[in-house]
Design brief:
Strand 4 and strand 5 form a beta hairpin. Helices cover about 25% and strands about 35% of the residues.
């Protein structure tokens, strides 16, 4: 039996130009459950500068999985056709709320 479960999965990585400060990292993490960005979810701390988020993109209402560290953001989403919009919104939110020079 053939299945297309993974057909629409899309992944991408955003690497920051410089490591996030502790304050910037915490600001991003705290904005997720508060709904300030286009992402809603529950951050799971895996270290001082590493978080996993199993959440929802509030624009598409599709699941989104993130790994956020002070050096990068890795995103897995279940919608290939919305990938570019998700990338654009994540970058805009990071630049708007944190630091316009980190990307």
């Amino acid at each position: 039996m053939k299945t297309d479960i993974l057909k629409d999965i899309s992944t991408f990585t955003i690497k920051f130009n410089k490591p996030l400060t502790k304050e910037s990292f915490e600001q991003i993490v705290s904005s997720i459950p508060e709904g300030k960005s286009d992402l809603w979810g529950n951050p799971i701390k895996l270290g001082l500068t590493k978080v996993h988020v199993y959440g929802v993109d509030k624009q598409t209402w599709k699941p989104i999985l993130l790994e956020l560290t002070d050096k990068h953001l890795i995103c897995i989403t279940t919608t290939e056709k919305e990938r570019d919009n998700i990338i654009e919104r994540l970058i805009c939110n990071i630049q708007k709320y944190i630091d316009s020079s980190i990307l």
